[in-house]
Amino acid sequence: MPVDRLRHAGLGIDRFLNEGRILTTVLGNAVATVFIAKWEGEFDLERAKAVPDGKDVGPVPDPDVPALAAMTTDDSEAAPAVAGH
What we know:
Elements: H1 3-40, H2 45-50, H3 66-70
């Protein structure tokens, strides 16, 4: 078999195997994210179940930012003013 054909066959196989590597990386990152979020006590199972059902869950309130924590998705007109602006 000529070397050129062997090289092209190897590149085709590598392209196929690369798809598997990408899939493994994406799934691994997703599983690790959920694992660490559960470990830290930050994983909200109800929100996670609502998203695939197409429900609007709104933004996650940040407890470290009082102005953002007070905002809701239903009351967007009454957003608190930012101090100093």
